[in-house]
Design a protein that fits this description.
alpha+beta; 4-stranded mixed sheet; 6 strands; globular
Length: about 260
C-alpha cells in the first residue's frame, strides 16, 4: 500500500515541505523557520560566511578534521575569498590546492550549488573503500535515495582540475558522492544544507557498516526499503528545505557555546 501523509492534509507551503504541523488549539497558524530574506547580496554573503565559519567548527567538533584540515577556532575574518583561477582576492593565506581543484569544478558544473562539503570522516572513508552506494535500509538513508553517487576511482591527492571535473561529473545532479578510497562529498543550495547532508551521510555510513558487520556475523538478512516507500519518504526528508532546517539546531548550539565569537 502506498504511504499517504494524512497528518499534513491541513498544511501547505513551507510547513508541509518540511513535515511540520503548525496550529495552536485556538486556531493560530504557526510557521516553521526558513531561509531568511535579505535586502542586499552583501547581507546574504555575510550570512553565508557566518554559517560557513560555524560549519567548520561543527565539523571539527565531530571529528571530521585531521591535521591542518581542521578549523576548531575559525572565524568569519579567517575566511579566504578566491576567484575562479584560485587567486586570492581577500585574505593573507594560501589555499588548499586539492580543495580548490574539487570545489571549483563542482561550482562550475552546478550553478545551483552554493556550498560543497568534503572531508575524510572516519565512517565515510571506511565505507568508501567498498566503492558502492548506500543501501536504502533506514529512514535516514532515504535522504540520499537516488541522490548520491560513487566516484569509483582513486588517483591520489586531487591536484588536477581534470580530476575535479570527473568528480563533478560523477556527482551529477545529486546531493552527495562517495569518493572511493577517499571520503565523502555533499552539496547544497546553502552552507547549512550541504553541512547537514554531510553529517547525515557520515552517520548513515556508520549505520551501514554496523548493519553489514552484524549481518555477516549473525547470518540475518537486512531488510531494505522498497522504491515506492523510499521515493515517498525522500520528499519528506531529502529536500533542500529540510536540509537547511535540520542544520539550525547545530548552528544555534555553536552560537550559544561560543557566545558568537565566530561571527567576527
Amino acid at each position: 500500500m502506498a504511504p499517504i501523509a494524512t497528518t499534513l492534509e491541513s498544511e501547505n507551503g513551507r510547513n508541509a515541505s518540511v513535515g511540520a504541523l503548525g496550529k495552536t488549539v485556538s486556531g493560530k497558524k504557526l510557521k516553521i523557520r526558513e531561509y531568511p530574506k535579505f535586502d542586499s547580496l552583501e547581507e546574504e554573503r555575510l550570512y553565508r560566511k557566518q554559517h560557513l565559519a560555524a560549519a567548520f567548527r561543527i565539523f571539527a567538533e565531530r571529528g571530521f578534521d585531521e591535521g591542518v584540515a581542521g578549523h576548531i577556532s575559525i572565524c568569519v575574518s579567517d575566511l579566504i575569498l578566491v576567484n575562479e583561477d584560485g587567486d586570492v582576492v581577500t585574505g593573507d593565506e594560501p589555499i588548499n590546492a586539492a580543495a580548490f581543484a574539487i570545489h571549483s569544478e563542482i561550482h562550475k558544473a552546478r550553478p545551483d550549488v552554493h556550498a560543497a562539503c568534503h572531508a575524510h570522516s572516519v565512517y565515510g572513508k571506511a565505507f568508501s573503500v567498498f566503492g558502492r552506494e548506500l543501501d536504502m535500509m533506514t529512514q535516514d538513508s532515504l535522504r540520499f535515495y537516488e541522490s548520491h553517487a560513487v566516484y569509483a576511482q582513486f588517483g591520489g591527492v586531487v591536484l588536477d582540475r581534470e580530476e575535479g571535473k570527473r568528480i563533478a561529473k560523477a556527482l551529477g545532479n545529486g546531493k552527495a558522492a562517495i569518493l572511493q578510497n577517499h571520503g565523502l562529498l555533499t552539496v547544497g543550495r546553502s552552507v547549512d544544507e550541504a553541512a547537514f547532508w554531510f553529517i547525515s551521510l557520515d552517520k548513515t555510513c556508520h549505520a551501514q557498516l554496523l548493519a553489514d558487520a552484524a549481518s555477516a556475523g549473525s547470518g540475518h538478512k537486512k531488510i531494505l526499503i522498497d522504491d515506492e516507500e523510499a521515493a515517498f519518504s525522500y520528499k519528506q526528508v531529502g529536500t533542500p528545505e529540510k536540509g537547511w532546517l535540520a542544520f539550525q539546531g547545530y548552528y544555534d548550539e555553536q552560537l550559544a557555546k561560543s557566545k558568537g565569537s565566530f561571527l567576527q
